[in-house]
Amino acid sequence: MIKHDIKSILTSHGVRPTQQRAEVYHYLLTHPVHPSADTIYKALSAKYPVFSRTTIYNSLNVLVEAGLVRIVNIRAGEQHFDANTENHGHFLCLKCDEIYDFDIMEDILSGLCPAGYQPKKCDIYFTGTCENCSEN
Amino acid sequence: MIKHDIKSILTSHGVRPTQQRAEVYHYLLTHPVHPSADTIYKALSAKYPVFSRTTIYNSLNVLVEAGLVRIVNIRAGEQHFDANTENHGHFLCLKCDEIYDFDIMEDILSGLCPAGYQPKKCDIYFTGTCENCSEN
DNA sequence: ATATGTGCAAACTGTTTGCAGCCGC
DNA sequence: GCGGCTGCAAACAGTTTGCACATAT
Fold first, then answer.
1. What is the nearest nucleotide to A54, using C1' and CA?
2. Which end of chain B, N or C, is less surrounded by CB atoms within 10 Å?
3. Global confidence as pTM
4. How far is the CA of B22 from the C1' of D8 (A)?
């Protein structure tokens, strides 16, 4: 995934492909661990000395509105971001503090939402102990 | 549900039944609309002139730890509270801003969590348009 | 040329914490 | 009397906003 590709993805989603937005999106694509805004800020500001928090938030909001990024609200008081917009669930391990993806069968998902309600998005969050941590 | 019952519920869950904790729990039981801490604060401080935010938060945290109340994180940056601790999902309507409960079949729920992972809690959040709002 | 994006600082919101006073066993 | 609870104020974290400057078409 090279820079040029990313910029054309942004463009095709109606997002002006600025350097900063491309960097934020590139970071999310190459670090699919659901980072927080602060994590992205620290990583990018280390790489590019001038990269403000404001711009991170601005870029993330633009990417979310464009449908390229989804917000993961599995931890209260701190948003995490995910460039994988396919249907999937999230599992937060309380021991290792990682957020894991897991698949959700499409037909199960559609059966969950109550009749008459029109969902725009669905978030499925589990919290507990992950596979690795429960072995120890 | 009278006060005496509530205090005995608190006691049986290892929570010292102070007046304030009972009021908070009573409010949640009688207002099953998933209020925020601020909503509870405004309601109770109107009824009882001295009722600090600190105490609301303290009481809520104690109730959550005791397993009597669950946190609903469907709206970023603001926790909502629910005295219904049975398994159920939440639907946030973007038009009327209400949070609705809906049932989840037990077997569907157990099929969602990936093998090897030990869930402690599960939150299923839908966001969209509710039954009433989509009719208009 | 003009609209849009960036970045600093400051504001804001929801929540937590420190600490003094109070209450109930 | 003592441990725990309350409540004020202040701190705190994450996020948003106001505004001046920079940038790109």
1. C7
2. C
3. 0.93
4. 22
